[in-house]
Amino acid sequence: MLTVTTSEQTTAGGYRLNIMVSNVPHDRPVQLNITLNDAACMQPGPLLLTQWVAEFIGSCQSGRRLKCNGSGAISPSTVKSYKGTLAQIVAYEQCRGRRLTLADMSMAFYNDWKLFFAAKDYSPNTVGRHVRNLKIFLFAAEERQLSVCPDFKSRRFAVVRRDADAVALTAGQVQQLYEYDAPRRTLQEAKDVFVVGCLTGQRISDFKRICRDMEVTLADGRSYLRLTQQKTRKTVYIPLEPRIRAILDRYGGRLPAVDDASLNRRIKAVCRLLGWTHACSGDANGRPPADARQQRPLCDCVTSHTARRSYATIAYRHGVPLSCIMAVTGHSTEQMLRRYLRIDGQERAMTAARIMSLTA
Q1: Which label site among 1, 5, 100, 258 has the fewest CB atoms less than 10 Å from its CB?
Q2: What predicted TM-score, i.e. pTM, was given to this entire model?
């Protein structure tokens, strides 16, 4: 499997990105150094794709490039995602033995890039993320009046998404996790951190930081956690329910440190110990997977992001208005939030009926 590592530095001459591609079939490790400044973008002729993407990433890191709506700087997690896509472009070039220019971004490239990812057994959502980032790079290049193949704007140059394995836990399952005593300290800590995520509705970059220092009392006399989200810089207020308080007290007011990969691996192990080995129930509309052979046990479908989906879904099932859920999760629109809800058509109808009966 190809291995890609990156490092970067900002110099007087521009932004420099160093990329090492190893495990290239039938070849030695490849060291690629990309240096670009604004003057290079103005040179005539096709521009190398990697050069433009390195310039794009450098402008994001320096603060010269802001979010599309101008609301602020691009988050470190987004920049990290952009670097991952650049690394995949470099890996593709090494695998195919050619350098890509902005003029090469045709449907033929798109189809071959998908084959490249298929050979690496990447999930549709991972491929979709890289395609989405590539389209962002290309739209930005076009805005700079650089020569870009227009195929990337075609509907066929599509960003693919699939929600088949995106699951949400029930309130009862969250409670079962909370009450469970894991056999090892590392599993217990990961389980407790995950439960805090289920009870707060935050991204992993935020719920891992939750501590008693964030506690505030609002005008209603109740305790909340005041948290500024890393990705969006939004400040949200999260009800401090007793289970969150109990977990924080267990660790002296601050959650134990656990990296993202370890949390995902350990929470799967905990769910397996709990016996959650039944197949995932299907997609957001209750449809089973198209191929029954692709069904996976629930324990293998649970990830750190399941915590955020679980909070939103449980709150919606309890009749909490979407606007109130958004105030806690920090979602910008109801459309974005609805993608998190793991509710089938029958449940939506019953929730609507319950809400209507309360207002009648």
Answers
A1: 1
A2: 0.68
